[in-house]
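DM from R.C. (forwarded with permission)

"hey, sorry to bug you on a friday — could you get me a structure for this? deadline for the figure draft is monday and I only need the backbone to look sensible"
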Amino acid sequence: MDNRDPRFSETNGVREAVRAFYDRHPYPPPAGDLAGYRRRWRDEARRRADFHLHWPGTAYRSDLKVLIAGCGTSQAAKHALRHPSARVTGIDFSATSIRHTEALKRHYHLDNLELHQLPIDRLQELGQRFDKVICTGVLHHLPDPDAELRALRNVLIPDGAMHLMVYATYGRSGIYMLQEYCRRLGIGHSDQEILDLANTLTALPPGHPLAHLLGQVPDFRTKAGLADALLHPQDRSFTVPQLFDFIEEAGLTFGRWLRQAPYLPQCGALAQTPHGCRLTWLPPAEQYAAVELLRGTMVRHNVIVYRSDRPGSGQPIRFDEDGWQHYVPIRLPRTRCVEKRLPPGAVAVLINEGHTYTDLVLPIAEGQRQLFECIDGHRTTTEIQNDLTSGGEQSPSHELARSFFEQLWWYDQVVFDTTQCSKESNGRTI
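My reply, with the result:
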């Protein structure tokens, strides 16, 4: 969906309107204190999990060269704090956004961060290439997202990884209705008009397509966020098929969803429906498209993509061969083992607090809980099973263990370091 304001039809006009918008409404609302964020990321295990989410088959390294394209007021500073050994470059075409990030850089002495006021279509001026590119919440606001994505692809090294986030069409239907409402009324950007708009939203009936987002999306609780959602001069969204076309046309290939469980028909309540099995017969891209239609409320798509000419697979995760026995599972942040509101036969349920869908819980039996509790980010799946057995515990059978580790992956409980598998297949050990 292209929800471009008809007042801005020419490319440079759109770009200037968007730049002026962010100079007036810096987004996200500027952060003054990142101390809590820094504390959360002191754990090296979190950084290893993030690395292997993008590169399961590559040995962990911390000195990545990272580009934050459209860094806003704080994203580049957060990444530099999160990965102190990385070399982070942040670009944004808004002078206001760069100024806020510069303040964070000075306050936290982020010597690993460099900043440039620069649009994406002029990236080549940096004369650099990057291991990782992060571009979230940006391309759908630009006049030519296809050209901008190609520019990002061109500064990614051949075996690099890119994290993209773009708006999802169906879950934002209520937002697009209210955007049109604001245009019809000629609602401007003054503080009073935005306040009046916020107060008007409280009168939405419970069944309105936007109503369910008001309490869930933080953007509606701030002036800048409300303006970004409803008063933006440029807004393009994507269905799953449109997103896959968008990626392919830029010379990129889909790797995985950042959180994949919401898109998988074998996860959550969808698996128990009469169509649960039928959905799994479809090719993966068709599964994702169908599940998006069934869930209906996805507001954004977060994907990891790779260059189409990448040497080897970016996501070599398979459970239909024996290689899984040499995978090292690493727990993702925000995973929890919960012992309440249990379904029959379960001793606990596993949840990922990053999921917005409450049905994405994985009930587990006692043997599965023991396997889960043994995940330390260092032992392979086989070593975990063997250590349980040698300690006198009853480990699940080989097939049950395989199925359980695959489910952990489906449900975004773990990522895998598959480098051990690669070395074993070459006849070598670590």
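R.C.: lifesaver. Residues 4-9 have pLDDT under 50 and may be disordered.
me: no worries. The CA atoms of residues 330 and 377 lie 4 Å apart.
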